[in-house]
Amino acid sequence: MNYGALIFLAAFIGISASWFGFVLTPQIQIGRETQATNTVNTAELYPIARPGQANEGAEVYRANGCVYCHSQQIGQSGTEVNVVLSEIGTNPVAVVEALINAKVGVTNANATGLSAGLPKTILRNVSIGNAKKASKAVRDAGAESRVDVVPVGVDIERGWGKRHSVAQDYIYDHPVMLGSQRIGPDLANVGVRLPDAKWQLLHLYAPRTVVPESIMPSYKFLFEQRKINGQPSPDALPLEGDYAPPAGYEVVPRAEAKALVAYLLSLHAGAPLYEAPLSVASAPAATAATNSPAK
Amino acid sequence: MNPSSCSSSSTVANDSLIREIDASARPPLFVLFFSGAIWLVISSILGLIASIKFHSPDFLANCAWLTYGRVYPAATNALLYGFAIPAGLGVGLWIIARLGQTRVVQPWIIAFGAKIWNLGVLVGVFGILNGDSTGFESLEMPKYAAILLFIAYTIIGIWTLLTLHARQEKTLTAPQWFLLAALFWFPWIFSTAHLLLTVWPVRGVTQSIIAWWFAANLKFVWFGLVGLAASFYFISQLMNRALHSQYLALFTFWTILLFATWSGIPHSAPVPAWMPAISTVATVLTLITILTVMMNVYRTVGRGCGQAANPAPGKFIAFGVMAFVVSWAMHVLNALPELAIFTQFTWFNVAQNHLNVYGFFAMTMFGAIYYIMPRVMDMECPCWGRVKAHYWLALLGIILIAVPLAVGGIIQGFKLNHPQVAFVEVMKSSLNFLRATSLGEVLLLVGHLLLLANLIGLAVRYARSRVTPVFVDAMTEIKPAGVKS
After folding, report:
1. Cα distance between residue B136 and residue B142, in whole Å
2. What is the dihedral of CA B295, B299, B301, B306, to 10 degrees?
3. What's residue B329's pLDDT?
4. Which of B76, B143, B208 to mutate to test the interface with A (most CBs of A within 10 A)?
5. Rounded to an integer, what distance in angstroms lies between the CA atom of residue B426 and that of residue B285?
6. Contact between A247 and A171 (Cβ < 8 Å)
7. What's the confidence (pLDDT) of residue A282?
8. CB contacts, 8 Å: A58 with chain B
9. A145, β-bridge pairs
10. What is the CA radius of gyration of chain B?
């Protein structure tokens, strides 16, 4: 039997199959994604390219291997549809009655106190159909409500993001550093979660002064300890105790540290996209518009 | 080399051919294995520095070159590219020469290729420490090092193929198919990954997809093919009988090519859902690979105990097969979305990776090296005691790394899935497990030093054996004169 040809064929099929599958096909499907007006309702351009300093910071992030401890991707286990009553109108009794009649889960028992403390979520985790029915009932009774689309999941509960990450979020990244480990917290939205540049710099220089139990390495090499000449620098870190420089000296961030912080602050992936919907404030009008033909 | 040992000419033709084959493989194997051992020592020193940082995060904080995010990838790259791949190439070359009953074609060129490879690894590891990492896991070596590696691999690969082509025994057996496929495989995935990630980078998450594809093809397909080729070959050599079934091995071969190549896209990835879905299905199908390997090895070994001439290499190989089964099974479990939510982003994956790369592949290579080197040097290994010591150190080291990481990883995963548990608490819960792994790293380091010492011991004895005959002649001429007086 001529095994040589068979092996060659097998190897070729094996390689080319997975190559076509995971190298070529993704290029065809999402390899040409560009900035788009993909955001729900607002039609804003998304994503926005990073400014130059933040791009330099991405290089610092890559060079120092931040990716080995920090992921940049949010997961989500599902999406909840909630109905929020924003205004009760002139006839609360009619609103409650309309809601009960709409048979969307509001009953006499849980309708008490419905109008207290608005805006208030009156229906949680319902089907989109029921949500639309409820908001129509509410509107017909002279009140106002909105339908909230709320992504849920562990990462979102931790406050690491508002929705799961999607391919669109990364089109300006090179390298894309999704990360495979969470020795430290996820950073997909760190620019929103911790937007204070001073805090970030201090945290990089001496992590344990701001998070006592942190095991993040100190990145002292991104900073410079220098003699104060005349006025202390406005950039100098407010260090105390063990971390304070000797008298007459100050610790200032080098360009790399500033760039890295600019990059960290540029990290946010929370725009409501069609592939990752998320509630937006102006919902009622839109809901009404889409609701009527669907009836 | 040892002219005294065989004067009679009964086993003869075959014996002397085998000697010639071994002798022809000496130059490249010496370079590949010796430098591999040095890279292992470097890797475990870097790994130890990385692991100390978990206990005292301010350790070496002033030194950019030794920050965790540089030392850790430098350590893994020294292991992957410094030891694992060259060792695999060396072992593969020797198996191909032995099975083909032919001398290695132009061994000096392969040795030269091995030196370029080492230069590439050196440049690459320094590049990573200097902050030039590509940022893609398992592919950190910068572009300029990758070019050297690619050239070196091409040289080694072509001359290995020439050796295969020059074979006297025409029928190809299982280890040869595995090695042939692996030889073609690496340059394809390596060049694809570098061209599309560092030379002409593609857009967005397609980068990550290619990086995952590369990592899975390196760690499961390439290591799987080469490691299993070595396991099958040495098991049948040590048991002194043929592999139970070539057809079962063919099955293993096909399932690796068709399924393992598609594994590696994690469930959590922000990519179109069909990719992780296909990846999950393919990874689950690698269960067939695991089962066929288990059955083949069991049937080959299980028919009563063979008389292995020297049990030490066999121990390494046996451990390698067991680690293969466990780590690939962990990989299958990891691919199931229901379980992946508890293991993703945790130490469990690190444990799996370590069991596969080190427990399976490196251990199999250790066994192979201890089997091959005494033959290639035409020397009895002076040091079976130290080989056994290396075995036990490596075994304990792996267990001390993999078990705590797997258990700690699962605990970490459960805590990560409870948002009420503060993140700092999650992190703290894995610290004690990490302490155990530091101890494991120390044991591995000692083991690597023993490997290096064993190879140096062989080399020294080999050098002496080339010198002694002259000495002995000189002595015999002098002695009578001495006796006379």
Report:
1. 10
2. -170
3. 97
4. B208
5. 33
6. no
7. 47
8. none
9. A85
10. 23
